[in-house]
């Protein structure tokens, strides 16, 4: 009986998802935009203090061998070859930066996941453990469903463009008891220096009302809660989110561009 109940629930979820896809295509088909329908990740066990790990340096052996990429896995087995195994030759300052980027620890952007790893395995983790698909394109419509769910809740999408992977994270959280808010930010799966080379724009548009947010993406090495605390994100209170939502779904237009002037000046330095 439990098996049939679970199957029936799965069928209802599938029908609901198909209905959301149909609504999204109907609304945005005229503009020819790619639509990403995102269901929430909901978990009441929220631990905001876990982000502190991103600020500390990793200790030897802190990552299990199966989570390391082949190069670092080889270093872990043979520490005496650590400075001689790299097949590429980089200037000393670049080599130090690359090594730091490879071993810098970070956490999963989803608040409900306690996974800790490093930069090179964030994308495989999101794809394998959370079934987050990779969309292609610099302009996407992010359609978050079930906005009425209580906080905390996350909506996340990942897409590839301009040679990098980006994450849009929409988080519902109570900064003050009884007053939930929505926070949307774009994160680059890369270093903060790489993130400075891009600009993103979030746009909400409904019933002749338009709201835009433009900023530089933050690195996934920084925790989402830190971005929220810094105020470097789009913030919506409940009434404003309802103003732009349609039957419990919120559509956010995403556009990512390369900040060529910043990147060219850094390359010259």
From TrEMBL:
Pathway: Protein modification; protein ubiquitination. Its EC number is 2.3.2.27. GO terms for cellular component: cytoplasm. One of its GO terms (biological process) is proteasome-mediated ubiquitin-dependent protein catabolic process. InterPro entries: 7-in-absentia-prot_TRAF-dom (IPR018121), SINA-like_animal (IPR004162), TRAF-like (IPR008974). It catalyses: S-ubiquitinyl-[E2 ubiquitin-conjugating enzyme]-L-cysteine + [acceptor protein]-L-lysine = [E2 ubiquitin-conjugating enzyme]-L-cysteine + N(6)-ubiquitinyl-[acceptor protein]-L-lysine. GO terms for molecular function: ubiquitin conjugating enzyme binding; ubiquitin protein ligase activity; zinc ion binding. Residues 160-254 form the Seven-in-absentia protein TRAF-like domain. Keywords: Metal-binding, Ubl conjugation pathway, Zinc, Zinc-finger. Gene3D superfamilies: Apoptosis, Tumor Necrosis Factor Receptor Associated Protein 2, Chain A (2.60.210.10), Classic Zinc Finger (3.30.160.60). It is an enzyme of class 2 (transferase). The SBD domain (substrate-binding domain) mediates the interaction with substrate proteins. It is related to the TRAF family. Belongs to the SINA (Seven in absentia) family. E3 ubiquitin-protein ligase that mediates ubiquitination and subsequent proteasomal degradation of target proteins. E3 ubiquitin ligases accept ubiquitin from an E2 ubiquitin-conjugating enzyme in the form of a thioester and then directly transfers the ubiquitin to targeted substrates. PANTHER family: E3 UBIQUITIN-PROTEIN LIGASE SIAH2, SEVEN IN ABSENTIA HOMOLOG 3. This is E3 ubiquitin-protein ligase.
């Amino acid at each position: 009986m439990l098996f049939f109940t679970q199957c029936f629930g799965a069928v209802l979820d599938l029908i609901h998802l198909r209905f959301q896809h149909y609504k999204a295509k109907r609304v945005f088909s005229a503009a020819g935009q790619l639509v990403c329908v995102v269901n929430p990740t909901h978990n009441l066990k929220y631990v905001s203090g876990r982000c502190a790990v991103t600020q500390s340096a990793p200790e030897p052996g802190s990552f299990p061998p199966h989570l390391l990429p082949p190069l670092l896995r080889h270093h872990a087995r043979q520490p005496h070859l650590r400075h001689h195994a790299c097949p590429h030759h980089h200037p000393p300052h670049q080599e130090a930066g690359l090594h730091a980027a490879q071993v810098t620890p970070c956490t999963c952007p989803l608040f409900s996941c306690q996974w800790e790893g490093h930069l090179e395995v964030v994308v495989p983790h999101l794809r394998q453990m959370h079934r987050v698909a990779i969309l292609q394109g610099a302009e996407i419509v992010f359609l978050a469903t079930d906005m009425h769910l209580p906080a905390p809740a996350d909506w996340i999408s990942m897409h590839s463009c301009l040679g990098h992977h980006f994450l849009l994270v929409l988080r519902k959280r109570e900064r003050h008891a009884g007053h939930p808010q929505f926070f949307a930010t774009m994160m680059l799966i890369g270093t903060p220096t790489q993130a400075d080379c891009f600009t993103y724009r979030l746009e909400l548009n409904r019933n002749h009302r338009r709201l835009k947010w433009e900023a530089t993406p933050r690195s996934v090495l920084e925790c989402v809660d830190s971005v929220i605390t810094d105020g470097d994100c789009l913030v919506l209170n409940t009434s404003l989110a309802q103003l732009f939502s349609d039957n419990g779904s919120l559509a956010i237009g995403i556009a990512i561009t390369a900040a060529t002037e910043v990147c060219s000046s850094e390359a010259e330095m």
